[in-house]
Automatic annotation (TrEMBL):
Residues 13-164 form the VOC domain. PROSITE patterns: VOC (PS51819). It holds the Pfam family Glyoxalase. It comes from Phenylobacterium montanum. This is VOC family protein. Gene3D superfamilies: 2,3-Dihydroxybiphenyl 1,2-Dioxygenase, domain 1.
Length: 191
C-alpha cells in the first residue's frame, strides 16, 4: 500500500481499541479461546468498579474490553449494527462503534472464513469490495481492493476479517466529504 506521510504526528498503529462487554469470562473465552488472541494484561478497576482486559491482535496493537457492573444494555441498530452486512440494518448512531476490522493475510483469507464456520461462528457472505455501482463483486477481479467477511462476538460487537488486495495511489482518493446535511464539500478530497 502506498504510504502517505503524516507531518503532524508520528502514529505507530493502534495502541488499543477499548470496547465494553457484558460478561468478561465469556469475552475471554471468545477472543482468547475461539479467535486465539493472547490475553496480555488484566486489570481489576478500583473499588469494584469493573475490569479492563487487553488482547494482543498482532503488530504491537491490542483490543481491550471494559466490564462495568452497571453498564446499560446494548441497543442493536443504535449502539451496534442490528445485523451483518447484506442481512439488514448495518447503520449505527453517531459516535457509536460500527465494527472492528482485523487485517488478515490475503493468501489465508478463504481458509480463515472456513475456520470461522468450522468453529460454529455465523458469518456474512464474503464481500469482494470494488468500485462498481454496488461496490461488491461475487468474484475476485483486478478491481477488488479489499475482501471482507463479518461476524458478531457474543455481545453483538461486529467484527470483520479483511485483507487488502491492491496498493492504493492518489487516484483512490477522489470523493469530497459530505457535511451533516449531506452536502459535498468543495475542498480537495485528497488532503
Amino acid at each position: 500500500m502506498a504510504k502517505r506521510e503524516n507531518t503532524e504526528f508520528e502514529f505507530r498503529g493502534l495502541n488499543h481499541l477499548a470496547l465494553v462487554c457484558k460478561d468478561m469470562e465469556r469475552t475471554v473465552r471468545f477472543y482468547r479461546d475461539v479467535l486465539g488472541m493472547p490475553l496480555i494484561k488484566t486489570i481489576d478497576l478500583p473499588g469494584g468498579s469493573g475490569q479492563h482486559f487487553f488482547f494482543d491482535i498482532g503488530n504491537g496493537d491490542s483490543l481491550a474490553f471494559f466490564w462495568f457492573p452497571n453498564a446499560p444494555e446494548a441497543v442493536p441498530g443504535i449502539s451496534n449494527p442490528g445485523s451483518l452486512p447484506g442481512g439488514g440494518q448495518f447503520v449505527t448512531a453517531h459516535a457509536s462503534m460500527n465494527h472492528v476490522a482485523f487485517n488478515v493475510p490475503a493468501e489465508k483469507f478463504d481458509d480463515y472464513v472456513d475456520k470461522l464456520k468450522a468453529k460454529g461462528i455465523e458469518v456474512s457472505p464474503v464481500l469482494n469490495h470494488d468500485d462498481s455501482e454496488w461496490q461488491v463483486s461475487r468474484e475476485v477481479h483486478p478491481g477488488v481492493f479489499v475482501r471482507s467477511v463479518y461476524f458478531f462476538d457474543p455481545d453483538g460487537v461486529c467484527l470483520e476479517f479483511a485483507c487488502w488486495t491492491k496498493d492504493f495511489d492518489e487516484s483512490d482518493v477522489r470523493h469530497a466529504p459530505v457535511n451533516a446535511a449531506g452536502v459535498k464539500a468543495v475542498a480537495r478530497a485528497a488532503e
